[in-house]
Design brief:
Blueprint: H1 2-28, E1 34-36, E2 40-47, E3 51-60, E4 66-73, E5 78-82, E6 86-87, E7 92-100, E8 106-116, E9 123-133, E10 140-142, E11 146-153, E12 157-166, E13 172-177, E14 182-185, E15 188-189, E16 194-196, E17 201-209, E18 215-225, E19 232-242, H2 244-253, H3 255-258
Length: 259
């Protein structure tokens, strides 16, 4: 009799467990449910500048329509396009991802975020990774990107210095762009482009005529080079033009301090 009771209890327990898991399974699939075939794509080794495309496939495994609310990427180098924004139960969709490797080197990972009305997974992260090989190139480096010229006497010119270094393996070519600035190297006027060998550094002297300007001045000098990653850089020069009268007044005011 006791054996029969234990057997009945075991049968009831098995039935309960089956009902519990079947109910959980039904609950898991109720509503919209997004499922991706894969969530990451490794390009492997590739050359810098190449553009790669991949398609992430997903499906609505739920029992009600799935809506893709938004697809966003972590940077402008990666673009994502969804094939369809609303999918019926069982329907398949695609997200086409394009990755431009220009400007990147070494091991790189970029992410795509897919937002939907799936209550369990409202946001899913996809990943694209690659090992980007960079060919030999010139690499431009400036010792600073802004210069404060301080007080400049009216009628004089702004004078400043900057150093440019080539940290790359190939020869660097640099051109300068400004309305009326003059550029010198060791006292000699530079004929554009300036050429800098690999690993070398050059000091540049800059002269900017003021042409009756007064007060606060802001000047921007553009440097254009054959560095593929930083082809255009800017140097910001600021200062304040003071008249001889203003200088005299300042001298009188602070004469005791200067003595």
């Amino acid at each position: 009799m006791r054996l029969c009771c234990n057997k009945n209890k075991s049968i009831v327990l098995v039935i309960f467990v089956c009902l519990f898991f079947s109910g959980s399974l039904l609950l898991a699939k109720s509503g919209p449910r997004i499922e991706f075939k894969e969530k990451s794509w490794n390009i492997g080794k590739t050359k810098q500048g190449k553009i790669h495309t991949h398609v992430f496939v997903f499906r609505n495994i739920g029992d009600s329509p799935l809506t893709i609310k938004k697809v966003r990427t972590t940077c402008g180098c990666t673009a994502a396009l969804v094939s369809k924004k609303k999918l019926d139960p069982g329907e398949r969709g695609e997200i086409k991802v394009t990755f431009n490797t220009k400007g990147y080197e070494g091991n790189v990972a970029k992410y795509i975020y897919v937002e939907s009305n799936d209550p369990n997974q409202p946001q899913i992260q996809l990943m694209v990774s690659a090992e980007i090989d960079v060919p030999p190139r010139p690499v431009i480096s400036l010792d600073h990107y802004s210069i404060d010229a301080g007080l400049v006497l009216e009628g004089e010119e702004i004078q400043a210095k900057m150093k440019i270094k080539n940290r790359g393996e190939l020869e660097l070519e640099v051109g300068f762009s400004h309305n009326n600035a003059l550029f010198f190297k060791m006292g000699k006027k530079i004929s554009s482009p300036l050429r800098i060998a690999s690993g070398k550094e050059v000091e540049i002297e800059i002269e900017i005529p003021l042409r009756k300007k007064k007060g606060l001045i802001r000047e921007y000098i553009l440097l254009k080079s054959n560095d593929p990653r930083r082809s255009t850089l800017s140097l910001y020069i600021s200062g304040y033009i003071i008249t001889k009268k203003q200088l005299k007044e300042l001298f009188i005011r602070y004469k005791k301090i200067l003595d």
